């Protein structure tokens, strides 16, 4: 951060994610954490002495440069439009909105006013995925064939208003497009609801990206095993990222000629070296906040734009549509820049 100007920031929502945002904002270099909006108050003391207000209007009256929107997904559109109308930049938690139409209205509201706005797709700031993306861009894997993600664990009691597709699967949809630089061309999905709630709590999706790369996503919040797994398989081997531990490993195809006839006859690949990369591990949420702060200051910063966040909402909607209708959904390719601005 080279700009000497200090920014005034606010926060909307002190739920489980909002409390983490409050912790980061209260110590973020170059930023004054002005106030929090939450009509439920600050039950956990997360605001750390920062004033807690009842309405967004009260926050706007204090004068802020940007706000972090961490209220329930169903309120993102209403709060985001209030901020845009007031000329305030916004970092909106993922997913951008709970409907495609709402996400589009947010894109239009901020773009038409030339305001910096982003979506909190935090996996983009995970050290393992940042390293993986850089290696794919450098061509280390050659042609990419397949991306597989598994995201499962126990039910998060913080979630009340959406199912597993809009909550957890949006992480995998966004990171897949981001690390590959491609967009989804089609998706087929199945969902089940086993926990007695009206929303789905398990999804299996198979998709294809614009360049023909195959995609598989398995997501649920019904498993006692917590897993955050991303693998990218290609011409030269396979990268595996564990975003819980921020570890990245590479399993290379063996280049060693084999004398064993049975293996020689099989024209696929054989196992080669495995490399575990040493990666500096900074907290992803802090990295996300630093990038957004820099973007508001007009510095180059690779944030997840609202337009990219809209695309993820569109793909999530297609996943639910596919599951409901038991059919494959084609996604027309929008003129979206997958690599941020």
Automatic annotation (TrEMBL):
Residues 8-121 form the Gfo/Idh/MocA-like oxidoreductase N-terminal domain. Coiled coil: none annotated. Residues 131-239 form the GFO/IDH/MocA-like oxidoreductase domain. Gene3D superfamilies: Dihydrodipicolinate Reductase, domain 2, NAD(P)-binding Rossmann-like Domain. InterPro entries: Gfo/Idh/MocA-like_OxRdtase_N, Gfo/Idh/MocA_Oxidoreductases, GFO_IDH_MocA-like_dom, NAD(P)-bd_dom_sf. It comes from the Bacteria. One of its GO terms (molecular function) is nucleotide binding. This is Gfo/Idh/MocA family oxidoreductase.
